[in-house]
Write a structure and sequence with these properties.
The protein is mainly beta. It has a domain of 113 residues: Sandwich (Jelly Rolls), CATH 2.60.120. 0% of the residues lie in helices and 25% in strands. The chain contains no helices and nine strands. Strands 1, 2, 4, 7 and 9 form a five-stranded antiparallel sheet that branches. It has a four-stranded antiparallel sheet with strand order 3-8-5-6, with no helix packed on it. It starts with 189 loop residues before the first strand and ends with a strand. The relative contact order is 0.11.
Length: 318
């Protein structure tokens, strides 16, 4: 019988120590040489969770595509584990981006497709007695010239209308005949006073005043545009002669529109006449050119006198 320690390494033949010769649990960690246990010495599924040291499985030990959905615990993929730009459109579930997932101001103009903003997408608070309208589209959102007549709706409310276009919004001369309804009665209108004059009604205006006249005056064009608008059809004038010193003959002060209208308006002065003679009447005008011609002429022979002449615009007809 062998004594303890009598069997030495050199007494053991190669391959003499078989599996059955090794006592269960006899091969401890201390009996294993560094690197002695290789992959072929480990049976399939021999390394379980209890055999793995904490953090022993590093990134390089994980096969490509080995971590699938079943290997991930619920909530295991947090924001910090997702690379930038890793979540692409194909990774999003249909209707997966809800309103709560959108950051404030995240939907910009370039993200809205043309024609996507329909009437149903515009917010609108119906008016009531206690609450005014809250507009979704304010003045700033409407392009210049974008509101055409076809874009305007109109309904008659039960309360009185508040006009959107008041008198102040209508330019002078902007309501033409074509803008009036067929049943609106139109015609010539007389306007008291002269343009540029004040008062209600406006006052008349002395537009021509000549003194110390002692000889004939040939027909002279006189512009009335400072006192009569261009669309005037006629003007109401008052002519006057003041007798400074009348000694002989007869003089006649005339006003006309043109040479084919000899006596539109006139008055005469002769020996024995009052110190002032005045006459008034309507002188037709050429629309667009409000002017007249005036002259002082002898009648039946030369006259000798010193006169003052004047013309006053009383009003006009449009």
């Amino acid at each position: 019988m062998l004594k303890p320690s009598e069997v030495k390494t050199e007494n053991i033949a190669n391959n003499a120590v078989t599996t059955s010769k090794i006592e269960d649990g006899a091969v401890t960690s201390a009996k294993l040489r560094e690197g002695a246990v290789k992959a072929e010495h480990i049976t399939a599924k021999a390394v379980g969770p209890s055999e793995l040291q904490d953090r022993a499985v590093t990134t390089s030990k994980i096969a490509d595509n080995a971590v699938n959905a079943q290997k991930l615990a619920s909530g295991a993929v947090i924001t910090g584990k997702i690379a930038e730009l890793a979540v692409t459109t194909s990774r999003l579930q249909d209707k997966g981006v809800t309103t709560e997932k959108l950051a404030t101001n995240a939907v910009t103009t370039v993200k809205i497709a043309n024609g996507s903003v329909t009437p149903a997408k515009l917010s609108f608070t119906p008016p009531s007695v206690a609450r005014p309208i809250t507009p979704a589209v304010s003045t700033d959102e409407i392009a210049d010239g974008a509101i055409t007549p076809a874009k305007l709706s109109f309904s008659v409310p039960s309360r009185p209308l508040t006009p959107a276009i008041a008198t102040a919004e209508i330019g002078d001369g902007q309501v033409t005949q074509a803008k009036l309804a067929p049943d609106v009665q139109t015609g010539d209108r007389f306007v008291w006073g002269a343009e540029g004059q004040t008062g209600n009604p406006r006052s008349s205006a002395d537009v021509l005043y000549l003194t110390d006249i002692s000889s004939d005056i040939p027909y002279t064009v006189f512009d009335l545009s400072p006192w009569v608008p261009a669309n005037a059809k006629g003007v109401i004038l008052q002519l006057g002669i003041f007798n400074q010193a009348f000694a002989q003959g007869r003089a006649f002060f005339r006003v006309r529109t043109n040479e084919t209208q000899r006596d539109a308006l006139g008055l005469g002065m002769m020996v024995g006449s009052n110190s002032m003679v005045a006459n008034a009447g309507i002188v037709p005008l050429v629309v667009g050119t409000p002017s007249v011609e005036y002259a002082l002429e002898s009648v039946g022979g030369p006259w000798v006198a010193t006169l003052t002449l004047y013309v006053t615009v009383v009003g006009y007809i449009v």
